[in-house]
């Protein structure tokens, strides 16, 4: 088992531990009677997700939220816009059925915050000059992007998988999180890892990596300039088998 595989295994264990801790209080279970409800919102450019939700982003000229979930849980899901921020949460712990889903229709987005065990994906490429993704807990993000700059902050046992392109990316990780970004092409990348987190990146020009603890960075793309600072048992290594994301 190679180093990044060990990191992934440790990250997976961290997710299981956090989920087990969360499951001590399982919350109200969905009754399986699935209904759909639309919630109106004002315009927003920031999204904050708190709770155990399965979220799909869908670009639209008409912002809003469509919730499909158990009939007995619908009233517990709260949707509000405060300033330029959309917030989705629940007023109690809930356990939605597997068929539950929340679709967020958005015009543009520059900040996504995920807390708890939310799962987020996008139906199409997320475009923009700038996007920040901030994760805490054991959430998951999986999507394609086309960005000028990406800021990624992962704490806890969150997992992020991105593909597409970003001219520049800045990654900060603590805890047991994982970042799968070897299919996200970038010219410049700065990555800082503490704890046992692991990151895979594809960069063609400048890579700056700072690793402490037993975290690891695996890079591909044959960058022209690589500067690394490693303390503890961490590592920064080239993946010579890495492929062009395109």
Automatic annotation (TrEMBL):
Residues 43-223 form the Putative auto-transporter adhesin head GIN domain. InterPro entries: DUF2807 (IPR021255). Residues 237-246 have a biased composition (Basic and acidic residues). Residues 216-246 are annotated as: Disordered. Residues 219-234 have a biased composition (Polar residues). This is DUF2807 domain-containing protein. It comes from Fulvivirga sedimenti.
